[in-house]
Design a protein that fits this description.
Length: 421
Amino acid sequence: MSSSRETESRGSDSQESASRESEVFPFNGSSYRGPDPRYAGWRAQEPVKRVRTAGGVDAWLVTRYEDVRAAQADPRLSRALACGPGAPRIGGTMYTTPDMIISMDSPEHSRLRKLVAGAFTARRVERMRPRVQSVLDELLDDIEAKGSPADLVPQLALPFPLTVIGELLGVPPEDLRKFEVWARSFATVDDRAGGEASLEGLAKLSEYIVGLIADKRAEPADDMLSELIAARDQDDRLSEAELVTFGFTLIGAGFDTTANQLANSVLALIAHHRDQWEWLVEEPARVPSAVDEILRHVNLFATDTSGFPRIAAQDMEIGGVEIAAGDAVLLSLASANRDGTVFEDPDRLDLGRLHNPHLSFGHGIHHCLGKHLGRMEMEIALTGLVRRLPDLRLAVDEGELPWHVGEINHTLTSLPVTWGR
């Protein structure tokens, strides 16, 4: 028979083990509705926190707005070191390669970014508005023609941004469905399979882009990929590997984040913030100014970070905490967006919020290249929904909604909705 002291000791060990397990990043308490409730306490008491990651690596988790924003712009925190040979596998993060723009530090990053930055300026994106609106209208026409109920993921959230980015880059419409499947595989972060799904998606995307590049070399078109090929062939500013990688990176990033953000946002509005949905229905012109609050409040990243760890290139300090060279650092955008020192009543969705310097598009050299396009797509889609389907509501209980587990984003695979009587 065990003594009471032995039992007490085992109980203490068990509690410590459970505590350590509960601290493994990413945390189970987070969802599309917001980060784990514990983040609020960490921001106040331990804003730079040591955590054990799902990959078995210790890392520093940065949770406070001021620290996250500063760290995103700090060149001493390297993305390249986090993606190079021998880099620690953090776990819960998407597989990336050293030649992807999201894996680079300056000056390599700046060289590549300049090649496409002009295509994503606010002015050029605004010129795309009529075509983007047309794509949305066609999809809503089809939804209304088929009638209630509908599934907003395959009928709207996925095809809308996929069609837009496909046309921008010059991907034939008949190939877009294949890109969707491969990009979703590439975004998988399930480390239990050794990253096999992500690597397989990466290989398929690369193989396809090689063939598409060959076609566009033979017959150039008025699209971004043709422009990138010209930069490679005429000015030698891109290596062949960079050209291939840039192609599938832009396509994957150009639709997956918007598709997930749109689906999650509609779910949040019609299921949990009905008063805010009705506020938009009363005056659809409010949607553009409301989008930033939706982006701040509705948590896109399943890991609560941008999904991409950084490695300290030298000894440094973040939020008064000493970070050693070689340490992994995770920046929680979801937590920063709920920081009460920046956002009044931060856990409340307030579509009329005026001061909203959220970090959902990032900050520093890696801030989202397509933020103007993504914001415009959100505006057009939500405006169309509140105008044409004002009484939109879930067709099933929320607990029945299927989520794709193991992606960098909170990803709904189906969103059945109904409207009318």
